[in-house]
Amino acid sequence: MSELPTASVVIPTYNRVDYIATCLDHVQRQTVPPVEVIVVDASPDDATQRVVEGYPAVTYIRSPHGRGTTATSRSIGLERSTGQVVVYLDDDAYPAPSWLAELLRRYGPSDVAGVGGRTDNGRPHEELEGLDKIGKLLPNGQLTGNFAARSAGDVEVDHLLGANMSMRRDVIEELGGIRDFYPGTCLREESDIALRARAAGYRLIYTPEAVVRHVGGTYARGRRFDLRYEYFGARNHAVLLRTAVGPDDPRGRAARHAVAQVGQHLMYAGRSIVGHEGGGDSRIRGFANGTSRALVHAVGSAVGEVRARHYLRDLTALKDETPLRLK
Question: Is the pTM of the predicted complex or chain greater than 0.70?
């Protein structure tokens, strides 16, 4: 077997003091150790720092950027790391002992830019879901996930899940570094560099053999799938399609995708009134939920379109290859 590339493990974190120690414990049990482990902490206090100080071999970096800047933390970790492959791991994701070795074994071919692994969320039968649609950018601009699927073997994908992903350092640098155009819930931030790599002709690999157990830590603000989540999901997806895919690719036409999503919410609202089996209150709640989500999604998509034009204008003006963080 050819020699494996060297790897730096970078863990962005924000106020996850109850999870970071367990994550680091699992990283230290790897059968193939990384050359370094870096924790980039955007928390407002020093609680996480005190935990990480108990791991002398781990490099701790304080990020001043705060909540909603995961991609910036990735970029900071990239700048301080030295490995040939930069491996990104969520602070609430606990890797199996062979995790890193399995990721690195897929880097033989020079056109493989990134490798991601399976994320076990502990949900029944999730390993059987979406086996034919893992990590795809569909013709309508939708991104599929299904990163818990236990496929029969390795699968070529269009994007990776940030909780369990890795990329070659030279490819990230070639593409201009990590861009943070994705505030709020940070949805889609990890897909940006992946889709740009695919657009440049590189391959991305999903392997079910590189497993992490994802326990799902608390959100910094709000709850998963609330209206704030809906807004930033729509906003950030519009930015992603415009900046990482582009309008010349039919899949990058963000307005078409937004219209389809708004339509789905309105259909749900209509079904709540016409066909809901519950009482009047249930129908009203269903209708209100569907219409409010449609409105929030439309607003988020419109804001995303505006911000995407701003980002593209700035990228054209800068004409450099440095990591960017533009608000």
Answer: yes
